[in-house]
Structures are given as C-alpha cells and as structure tokens.
Amino acid sequence: MPNFAYTGRRGPEAVRGVLDAASAGAVADALRAEGITVLSVQADAAAGGDGTSSAQDWLNERLKPAIQPVDMLVFTRQLHTLLKSGVPILRALAGLTESATNLRMKDTLQAVRSSLESGIELSRCFAQQSGVFDQFFVAMVRVGEMTGRLDEIFLRLFEHLEFELFMRQQVKSALRYPMFVMIAMAAAIGVINVMVIPAFAGVFKSLGAELPLATRILLATSNFTVQYGWALLLLLGGAIFGLKRWVATEPGRLAWDRFKLKIPVAGKIVLKAELARFARSLALSLRSGLPVEQALTVVAQTCENTHIASKIEGMRAGIERGESLLRAAIASGVFTPVVLQMVAVGEETGSVDELMLEVAQLYGNDVQYELKTLSQQIEPILIVFLGVLVLILALGVFLPIWDLGRVSFKK
Known about the structure:
Elements: E1 3-10, E2 13-20, H1 24-33, E3 37-43, H2 51-63, H3 69-84, H4 89-99, H5 103-117, H6 122-128, H7 135-147, H8 150-207, H9 213-248, H10 250-260, H11 266-287, H12 292-302, H13 306-320, H14 325-332, H15 337-349, H16 352-372, H17 374-410
Antiparallel strand pairs: 1-2, 1-3
Helix pairs in contact: 3-4, 3-8, 4-5, 5-6, 6-7, 7-8, 8-9, 8-11, 8-16, 8-17, 9-17, 11-12, 11-16, 12-13, 13-14, 14-15, 15-16
Keywords: Cell inner membrane, Cell membrane, Membrane, Transmembrane, Transmembrane helix
Organism: Inhella gelatinilytica
Protein name: Type II secretion system F family protein
C-alpha cells in the first residue's frame, strides 16, 4: 500500500508522521478515530525506497515546468464552469487533474484533491499549496465556502487573474523596445572602447602634438576599459547581486518600491497600475461579502508595491479605530483625487464596489494607453543620449585629425 505523510493536532500538540493506507481518506479516518484533527494528508514519495530513487524523484520534480499564469486562468475558468453545472467539487478536481497538461499543475491539483478527500476544507487545501495559490486566492475561496457561491467566486478570480496577466503582458511589450535600444547602445560603447579607439591611438601618438581634452578623455577611458574591463564586469556583477540581496530584505524592498514611484515617466505608470489593482481587488472582495477591514487586509496582499501595501494596511488600522474609508484613504497619502472622489460617493451611496470597478477600468485603460506610448515618451531621451555620445566620439576622434590637416594646410 502507498505511504501517506500527515500533519495534524491532538489538542494543543502538533503531530506528524507516515501511515500505510489504501487512500488519503483512509488515513484521515484512522487519524480521526485516534482523536487527531487532520491538517494535511499527502502521498509520501520519499518514504521507503533507496537514496537513488529519492534523488531521482527530487531531480524529476525540479525539472517539471513551472505553473504559468495561463494554467491558473484555465483552471479557475474550468472549475467555475464545472461547479456552475452542478458537478461535485471532488469530481471536478479529478477531471481537471486528468486534463491538466502542466505536470506541476497536475501534481498540485492531485494534492488539493487528496487533502479535500481527507476532510480538510477547500480553502485550507489551497493554502497548503502556498507556492501556487496566494493569500488573496485562498481568502476568496474561503468567502465562497461561507456564502455557498464558489462558482461565482471562481469566475471573479478568473477575471482578476486575466486582468493581472494582461497588465504584465502590456508592461513586457512596452519595455521590449527601450531595453533593446539600451542593450545595443551599451554593446556599441563597449566595441568602440575596446576596438575602435585603440586603433586610433597609434595614429594620434604618431602626430606628436598635444591632443584635445575630448581625445585625451576617450583614450583614458579606452585604456582603462581594456586593462581593467574584467574588474568593471566583476564590480557590475557584484553591484547587481548586492542590489538583489538588499531588495530581498524587507527594508530594502520597501525603499526600492518607494523609489519606483518617483522614477520619471515610469513612476506614474506604476502608481496607476497599482491603483487599478487595488480598486479591482477591493471591488471583488466587497462584492464577495468580505467586511471592509478584512477586505483591505486581503487587498494589501495583492499589491506588488510594498510601499502602497503598507499604506493600505494603515487604512485598515484607521477603520478599526472608527474612521471612515474616505478619511483613512486621505490619510494614506497614496491615492489620487479621482479615487478619493469615487470613495466618497461610494460611501455616501453604499456602492463602493461598483465605483471601485469604475476606477479599475479607468486606470486600467489609462495604463494601457501609457504603456502603448511609453516608447514614444522614452524615445526623445534615448535620442538625446545617443546624440551626446556621438558628439563626444566625433570630437575625440576627428578633432586631432582636423588640427593636423589645418597645420599641414598652413605649411
């Protein structure tokens, strides 16, 4: 019989272990008979066998493709359709597990189904797969369980994930051209410093005359790049590594996200995208029946910008102290007048969720337009930078030749 690893609680004491049983449900029944509250039951591939098979299983697990946003979109849409048609949740999960094309997604759904068979509620089953389903997803499923509207919740989650995927695709599309231009310019500067300027250095040296300042700067830069290029690369790699490590810390991530909001051109796009995400998530949470305080906690977890997320958490604390949603939003200092006006009208009319959807659509369209025109906004900056670079190179390379030709002409 297969082995199943379980975790549970016997009173205040946490227990875990491995049992042989025909199914995860049989393990759960046996544990409940012993007075253990079951938290999770999963097939234990590592139990038994030799070290070689365990290493092979670990390697196979690492080689499985990651779960893509499209996989999550398909899952939520299909699950909504099945539940709306009256298919039981266990049968729906079994069908989706069989039809899943992504191996990691198939294993995840199998684990969710096994936990559900063991008597664990669906939201907790998703919570156990924290690397796949985030806290917003789990909170919305929990609301669906409490209200009996799981099919509607999965439809709203599909719309939410579709919006998130659309935003990411727009950002990638908008940044593709500027990144390509910047990489090409960096490569051109490297080639000029390493190959072109050293070729002119011998010609300049044979002139025997004093070189212009621009030429001396170019020669010094080229010599430094040729001799210490490896040190520059190491320094650049170390700086990138250190920046990533610093951003991975909580203070570093907060400071970095605060800085992103102040970047020219891109900062306003980041802010509008976060406001659109906030408005859509808040509308979805309120429509699903979550109280405002809990809704703000869930919404803060969907924000990719930790600075804005911390401000939303501060709003929740203000509402718990008895403040209105509008006053808490004003105190946060991150919302635009449009959002504040919508919140004010929504509180007065009792339709915050509807107006938040309007805000999400407004800023979503605005972000889409800004991203489409991002290349046009960045293009003048790139042209100016490229023009300055060409001017410096032209002055450094051609001024000595010009001076030599003028002296020769006078003679």
